Amino acid sequence: MTTIQDELRETARTLLAEGQVDCVLGWAWEEELQRAVPCFVRAAEDAKRLIWDERCVVSLAPFLLHMKRQLSSVRTEPSRTAIVVKGCDARGVVRILRDQQLERDEVLIIGVVCQGVGDPDNRPAKCRECQYHVPPVYDLLLGEEPKETQTPSSPLLERVREIEGWDVADRASYWREHFSRCLRCYACRQVCPACNCVECIFDSERTRWTYKRTTAEENMIFHAIRAFHVAGRCVECGECERACPMGIPLMEINKKVASDIKELFSVPDAGVDLREEPPLVRYETGDLDHFV
Ligand code: SF4
Ligand code: SF4
Ligand code: SF4
């Protein structure tokens, strides 16, 4: 039986052999680390290194951006990269394209139908409530589209509603406790397809109102600013929370903001349409302004 992995290797081999792309970004198994890692395949004969299965947890979307930025300083001719995406990763690629960090013709999107990653008995939360087993955007699709799809319930949204029900003091102490553990390692930012500024405000030497101290107060400013910067643009991929070494429940913040944005602006999920305009980056005279 031909598997999606077989199809992927053959597709990558053909794309490279025919010169349709310069590189295929997918996953390969790294024996030493015992995990699937991003793999940049540039020669057709290396396409056999690519894998596709439940071990392919990491989203490749941010790696696409980092690679293109690094190469842009040394390469002048146009290049095209194929990227392999699960549904959640495809939304990250849409984010990067809609934020005009890459041109559409620089990227060929190979979507894979995905039933979940990680341990089948303990899937990540995002897989348990996934609505995008088929990537919402792709150029080539590998795998069979499921005949029936059901909209799953969202335990994460239920958790957000629970926290909303707490009084202000309890919410403040809950987040203070979490943020006081934040190391400011910025892993959450580095893996985020929506955190794609060329220079992040938290790396800037010029600002006089954000600092790198890891006090609860400074960390709270970091997280508040990050939440607002990705508001309406976060694609809920869960990569920030997965990457956090301190187990801070960042998706509770992201889900809260995403659900408020959807309610206030009646918009679809972020990152599912290449024509989308995130509500906070456009201006309309009828915009809500009761908070001003
Ligand atoms: S969230 Fe959906 S698309 Fe993403 S890994 Fe889980 S099941 Fe696959
Ligand atoms: S879930 Fe986290 S990593 Fe993914 S887009 Fe939102 S803020 Fe970024
Ligand atoms: S990954 Fe976790 S510890 Fe590191 S900056 Fe982000 S929230 Fe803080």
Can you characterise this structure?
With 292 residues, the chain is an alpha/beta fold. It has two domains: 4-142, no CATH class; 155-281, no CATH class. It is built from ten helices and five strands, in the order H-E-E-H-E-H-E-H-E-H-H-H-H-H-H. The protein has helices at residues 4-17, 61-72, 87-98, 125-128, 155-164, 168-180, 187-190, 216-229, 239-243, 250-265, and strands spanning 23-30, 35-41, 81-85, 107-112, 140-142. A five-stranded mixed sheet has the order 2-1-3-4-5, sandwiched between helices. Helix 4 links the parallel strand 4 and strand 5. Helix 2 (61-72) runs parallel beside helix 3 and helix 6 (168-180) packs across helix 8 (216-229). The protein starts with a helix and ends in a 27-residue tail after the last helix. Bound molecules: iron/sulfur cluster (SF4) (3 copies). One iron/sulfur cluster binds at residues 191-194, 230, 234-240, 254.
Radius of gyration: 20 Å
Number of helices: 10
Detail the poorly predicted runs. none
- Globally, the shape reads globular
The chain-level structural class is: alpha/beta
Tell me about the largest β-sheet: 5 strands, mixed
* Count of all domains: 2
* Distance N to C terminus: 61 Å
What ligand molecules are bound, each kind once? iron/sulfur cluster
User: In which order are the strands of the major sheet placed?
Assistant: 2-1-3-4-5
The chain-level mean pLDDT equals 93
Proportion in β-strands: 5-15%
Report the helical percentage.
25-40%
Strand and helix order: HEEHEHEHEHHHHHH
Number of strands: 5
